[in-house]
Amino acid sequence: MQPAILGPLLLLPGLLLAGCGGSSGGEDNNGSGPMPPAPVTATFGIDQRPVLAPIDLPIDSSQPGALILENGFPNLSFTAPLFLTAVPGEARLVVVEQGGRIEAFENDTASSSSRTVLDLSSAVLFAGEQGLLGLAFDPNFTQNRFLYVHYSRDNPRRSVISRFSWLVGNDLVDPASEKVLLEIPQPFSNHNGGMLAFGPDGFLYIAMGDGGSGGDPQNNAQDMSTLLGKMLRIDVSPENPSDPYDVPASNPFLGQSGIAPEIWASGLRNPFRFSFDRQTGALWLADVGQNAIEEINLIQAGNNYGWRVLEGTQPFDGSANNLPISAFTPPVFEYDHSQGVAVIGGYVYRGSLLPTLVGVYLYSDFGSGNVWGLDYDGSAAVSNTLLGTAGSPTSFGEDSNGELYLVTRGGDILSFRESNPGMGGTIPVNLSDTGLFKNLSDLTPASGLIEYDINIPFWSDTTIKRRWVAIPDGQKIGFSAAGNWTFPEGSLVVKHFEIDTIEGDPASRRRLETRVLVNRSSGWEGYTWRWNTAGTDAVLLAGRESESITITTAAGGSRTQQYDYPSRTDCLQCHAATEGFVLGLHTRQMNRDFDYAPRVDNQLRSLNHIGYFDSDIGVASQYEAYPDIEDAAIDLTQRAKAYLAVNCAQCHQPGGSAPVDMDLRFDVELSQMGVVDVLPQAGNLGLVEARILSPGIKENSVLWERMGLLDENRMPPLASHVVDSQGLSLIGQWIDSL
Questions:
Q1: Furthest-apart CA pair in the chain: how many Å?
Q2: Nearest to residue 297, comparing CAs of 192, 316, 310?
Q3: How many CB atoms lie within 10 A of CB 505?
Q4: Both 247 and 139 in a single domain?
Q5: What is the pLDDT of residues 600-628, one digit of tens each?
Q6: Are strands 393-398 and 81-86 parallel, antiparallel or unpaired?
């Protein structure tokens, strides 16, 4: 109703002026009567900003009684934060930044500043999964002022466990007070684990990953002579104060030949966050999986948790150990990669603000952003409930009262509260009920949805796509010339997929799905509606679905193509915080012409004209645009880098979800991308002289080889079952030319 009412009203000022302005120059040269109105020349693709029609996609919690995640400290932001904890005996919290700093601030939602109490950035190796990874306060901190950190160092690459003193006089941690307790060599740059925590027994527990690469090629997790792939336990109050630590007499392998005495438990891959239940003392640990399974374990002395023989409960590599399967302790819970790709361990909730969750283990996933509550009865998982979502969570944190926070890669610290019963709304089951389209038959969008196109589409298995964006009335997009655009709460991004069932024949085109990203109160969430075979409406999916589609080839034959419809968790694996969650709406992608019908105009120019940006961005020609990757007249390196930036950089950049030190963003110089003549960190695919990118030899380049695969080693890893032959050719030519 709203657009229909407002449309005529916008014409009233002009009509009134025409009726009463005759005495002020409104006559022609002969004075014979009013001059006809001057014709209006439309010079923009969009003349004025359309009013956004009511859309039935609520931005509050989608489930009555669900957990609401909100910025707990809206005036604070941190750089690559990895952990939060409380300062013992104080009303302060500290945040660990991966780059090497520890920031302290008052535990007050109104806090507007933090204090750097320790800066190890000059010593810390900060790249990929390396950096300042863990912090634990001594159980007697209020008396001895000791704290312990886990950080990465270079030359040689190693993990360092050190003790520092936090001085009372200047309220700073003294860098000169460092006492190194442990240095553990690291063969690769990933799978560092990193968490430190004191148990109820007063001993320091240290989680170590398997040393990295992919598939644990050195079998560290099962090698009991190394500390990698283990949970360690040490006594940081040694009998001889000059010693770095003692090994507790109750450690399960103390005195056994060939076994490192510090080991408390074994068979871990990349334990990313563990915690002790402050009521029962149980040790909960989340272990990041390889290609298929994420797992949650209850760690007990002497147990072997299976990696790399097992990934979760699934067989992985039986050659790693000749023990029977019964020798390994299974996880208490596991999930596959339709739900996420990197589990983030949490805490058993023991606070008072979330009464329905007391005793429930809260945890998350870095890729999907899902936050779950696992109810465990002491012998089995009773339920696992999706409570909410967040953007790229990296850790949970607990304050002195047992209240939980969620640390995000983007720099925010989220707090939790329970919604009131019935609060929020539900997402419509049928696409026709969302109000996104006025007419489904021809996909006429609702008022306020602006169609756009991009310079380089993300590879999507030969599908044809259309795109729309909408932001709430009166709101604006935060523009960036080369970085991420920012979008206000309530923004919508819509992408529609179709496929030609006869190659090259638009008449055979079939509707597949319509995806919608909504910037809700808890962050971006993705939804998929799958079209019926008649193409008349689409139904909201509860999870990932697949089908086989028969495609008639141009040569007259046929092929069967698997097509995956993404789940809500799948969406946020690519739409990650590193790219601002919205992939196509960037300056280099949007700086192009679009047929707005009846006029063609530059998209940046049109959006700027209607006030879509937070400032006047000026002429579009001053901004860069991605090159046409099919134009052989354009520099090959520029075209190749643009392809990689669009298809790979959302994961392969600092802070991305890929566990390797690669930076495939367009602006990064080739020498700084971490790929040229670099040994692969996640498996060599059996190539004898494997490099991530071997100059002049594409066949020795893991980056190129993965693009041509369709198994678990392929890139991109999600929802693609057709090789991008043009992209493969482009990257192959580029590598061979180097």
A1: 113
A2: 310
A3: 11
A4: yes
A5: 999 999 999 999 999 999 999 999 999 99
A6: parallel
